[in-house]
Amino acid sequence: MRKTVVAGNWKMNKTPAQTTELINELKPLVAGSENKCIVCVPYTNLANALEAVRGTEIEVGAQNMYFEESGAYTGEIAPNMLTEMGVKYVIIGHSERRQYFNETDETVNKKVLKAFEHDLIPIICVGESLEQREQGITFELVALQTKIALLGLTADQVKKCIIAYEPIWAIGTGKTATSEQAQEVCAKIRETVASVYGNDAAEEIIIQYGGSVNAGNSAELFAKSDIDGGLVGGASLKANDFSVIVNS
Ligand code: PEP
């Protein structure tokens, strides 16, 4: 039985002090939840987030990392900088990084491989644009993104991954995919994982849906058989709304 995993992607929002405040508000609201709650905060807020979640079940993730160990990469963050702090998760290949920062399927794969070298769990984002959906290539595209992202991993590593299916047209737009649309693509991702890494890996991997998830639609989405939780942007910035989603 897979656990429901809900991760908040705060994007470029909140200062360190605001991070402490928001997590302190969130803590009592998600205490005792059967579902896993992760907050992915900006790099500068990681220390505050880790301090604020101490003694709770809430986990902390970063929103990106680089695929090299160290060196002349101004402005980048290496995986051991995250792990030494106590960070356990890292979002890789969010569509905003693909769109604005030239992230490609190949760099996503390099980052996923590097994450595993450091025991970081990647939350790998895949998803189609509206144009691609209208062209009828959603399944092929998402399957290919998934295969490339996971290239070179063992089946045991794949079992530990989280894949977030995030249709680009639904991110930050208030336009959620219907639970049927989200389910059929998440099922396709699971089928793709099964075809390459076997049924055990496909049964264990966590597949989230992301794209305008809110307190009103999360329960229906997470009830679908292949949707194991969500990656949540806007609604993760409000403790009340995010706690309802986490507890869905
Ligand atoms: C996201 O940032 O991954 C996301 C899904 O954002 P939103 O929930 O705001 O659509």
Task: Summarize the structure in words.
With 248 residues, this protein is of the alpha/beta class. It has one domain (5-246): Aldolase class I (TIM Barrel, Alpha-Beta Barrel), CATH 3.20.20. The protein contains 12 helices and 8 strands. It has an 8-stranded parallel barrel, surrounded by 5 helices. Helix 1 (16-30) packs across helix 12 (239-246) and helix 5 (105-117) packs parallel to helix 7 (138-150). It is globular, with a radius of gyration of 17 Å. The relative contact order is 0.16. It binds phosphoenolpyruvate. Residues 9, 11, 166, 171-172, 210-213, 231-235 line the site of phosphoenolpyruvate (PEP).
Q: Can you give me a brief rundown of this structure?
A:
By secondary structure, this protein is α/β, with parallel strands linked by helices. It has helices at residues 16-30, 46-53, 79-85, 95-100, 105-117, 130-134, 138-150, 155-160, 179-197, 199-204, 218-222, 239-246, and strands at residues 5-9, 36-40, 59-62, 89-92, 121-126, 162-165, 206-210, 229-232. The protein has a single domain (5-246), classed as TIM Barrel, CATH 3.20.20.
Topology:
Elements: E1 5-9, H1 16-30, E2 36-40, H2 46-53, E3 59-62, H3 79-85, E4 89-92, H4 95-100, H5 105-117, E5 121-126, H6 130-134, H7 138-150, H8 155-160, E6 162-165, H9 179-197, H10 199-204, E7 206-210, H11 218-222, E8 229-232, H12 239-246
Parallel strand pairs: 1-2, 1-8, 2-3, 3-4, 4-5, 5-6, 6-7, 7-8
This protein binds phosphoenolpyruvate.
